[in-house]
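README: folding subset

This subset contains proteins for which both the sequence and a predicted structure token string are available. Records are stored as plain text. Below is the entry for AQP1 protein (141 residues), shown exactly as it appears on disk.
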Amino acid sequence: LSEGINAGQGLGIEIIATFQLVLCVLATTDRRRNDVSGSAPLAIGLSVALGHLLAIDYTGCGINPARSFGSAVMTGIFEDHWVFWVGPIIGGASAALIYDFILAPRSSDLTDRMKVWTSGQVEEYDLEGEDMNSRVEMKPK
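--- output ---
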């Protein structure tokens, strides 16, 4: 952390920098969106650049625990190193939750969205069957 930046401030900076990067990645690579035009790699690269321009003077802009860990191993400085693990974890998880539950929910039913927590990714299915007693085939859309 830079001079004059305490661990709490550094944690907040890392959370915000990681949040904006993960939100950009999720929004530009979501296959369900048909309104995205342009280059996803360019958008993600600009997001990384923005994060670094805003945070590098304060925390060195870790936004990736592996990158921060490598630097800490080489320099032998692990003071406040937890900031560079906890910040990206909180920022990335909150971006994923906000994107999946608020900005672009996969379905309108809250119980279906909550199934992700217990059974992994839930896909939307087409149900093919003539009546309620017939066998139902489930195929991904």
